[in-house]
Amino acid sequence: MSLRSQLLKGILDGCVLSVIEKEPAYGYELSKKLQQAGLKDVSEGTIYPVLLRLQKNGYIRGEMQPSASGPNRKYYFLTEAGMKVLNEIAKEWEQIVIPANSLLKRGNSND
Predict the structure, then answer these.
(1) Contact yes or no for 73/26 (Cβ under 8 A)
(2) Domains of the chain (ranges plus CATH)?
(3) What string of H, E and C letters represents the secondary structure of the chain?
């Protein structure tokens, strides 16, 4: 597994929850939104196991809805538990990313 994949694996749940918080989405749509946000490595094959785990943990719920272009789609919605865990992830991420960015900063002539 590449370094990028390992780093992404650690924060992907939070990213998925964050996208669903803004607007319910189905799996393919969710992977496209993550890719548009810059997470190019996130494919449908990566998303579905994450969605299953998040649903099993009660952080999201799935609901079949009609589609204007084909069969029904399973849309995912954030639950109250999902909102709580998303807030926890965001808080923990901030406590990690700020010092990590400071430590990993390159090219500063003051060092």
Answers:
(1) yes
(2) 3-104 (1.10.10.10)
(3) CCHHHHHHHHHHHHHHHHHHHHCCEEHHHHHHHHHHCCCCCCCHHHHHHHHHHHHHCCCEEEEEEEECCEEEEEEEEECHHHHHHHHHHHHHHHHHHHHHHHHHCCCCCCC
d(CA 15, CA 20): 9
Distance CA 14, CA 49 (A): 14
> What are the pLDDT digits (tens) for 38-77?
999 888 888 999 999 999 999 999 999 998 888 999 999 9
